[in-house]
Write a structure and sequence with these properties.
292 residues; mainly alpha; globular
């Protein structure tokens, strides 16, 4: 039998699939909380029979609780990010929504006592400069951030929590089992968010349903199956860094699909953010592991 693909192949595949998420989310033309609910609901329809047949639902109560908790933070991430996408520029929302590597380093320092290297602090400084340049210094001073930008920043924080908890929870759990319980937790909380906000769950056009199905099958099911498999073998910082590749792909696709025109400040600010996050985890060990 041929050798199984390396975890990094799964990670790169997952990142490519997830990069389609902002495009498909906008093309659904439904409220952000609605698309956030259906992207997992429709994926669960496909995943559930496999889980039941293979009996991937067997897990200790403690692990189930942690996986459900992961689902909560993933639901909060996508709820904030999807709402941001519907009211702001796709590229800007994607950049701000992918600041997870910065938050991930801080969370590991606080809760795991893993001290970041000097590269980390330099990268954080560069990243913050990029965010300020992209958003505008005057808005920062006067606290005049748009709702879309604030939602995207909140999404990146919840995204980082999800990645850290997933990495800690995945030990000894198969990818399919973890996906099932984390998606179950997501499903419950995303429905609660949609219900509390009064988001519509029916009455969509055939085109919207098609986009929702594609959103569920490609970014959610295929993309996150690959990423969650990688999280069982790779460091959470490496995973969050590689996922930054979706920023470039999503931004380029947005200019073609939606005819979105990026300002010079948005382009330069976004490039500075990507540079800063790359520097954040630049170290010999990481480079060596990538080149192996």
């Amino acid at each position: 039998m041929p050798p199984a693909p390396s975890p990094r192949i799964y990670l790169l595949t997952g990142a490519a699939c997830i990069s389609l998420s902002p495009i498909l989310t906008k093309l659904t033309e439904v409220p952000g909380l609605t698309s956030a609910f259906y992207r997992v609901t429709l994926a669960m329809v496909v995943l559930l029979p496999v889980v039941l047949y293979k009996k991937h639902y067997k897990l200790s109560p403690g692990k189930i609780g942690m996986a459900l908790l992961c689902g909560l933070f993933f639901a909060m991430d996508l709820a904030c990010w999807n709402m941001s996408l519907m009211i702001s520029n796709t590229a800007v929302a994607t950049v701000l929504g992918n600041l997870a590597p910065v938050w991930t380093g801080l969370l590991l320092l606080i809760f795991r006592n893993q001290r970041p290297s000097a590269y980390y602090w330099v990268g954080v400084g560069i990243t913050l400069c990029g965010v300020i340049y992209m958003i505008g210094w005057s808005r920062i001073i006067h606290f005049n951030l748009t709702a879309g930008n604030l939602l995207a920043l909140a999404a990146s924080f919840f995204y980082a929590i999800y990645i850290v908890i997933t990495r800690l929870t995945r030990s000894g759990i198969s990818t399919m089992t973890f996906m099932f319980y984390s998606m179950l937790g997501y499903l419950l909380f995303s429905f609660l968010f949609a219900w509390l906000a009064g988001a519509p769950l029916s009455g969509f056009s055939s085109r919207s349903w098609l986009m929702l199905v594609l959103l569920a099958m490609v970014p959610q099911l295929l993309g996150w199956l690959c990423v969650n498999h990688a999280l069982g073998h790779l460091a959470s910082t490496e995973v969050s860094m590689v996922l930054l590749g979706q920023i470039v792909i999503a931004s380029l696709l947005a200019t073609v699909v939606f005819d979105e025109i990026l300002s010079l400040a948005q382009i330069l600010g976004g490039l500075i953010v990507v540079l800063g996050i790359a520097v954040t985890y630049l170290n010999r060990g990481f480079l060596k592991s990538v080149l192996e």
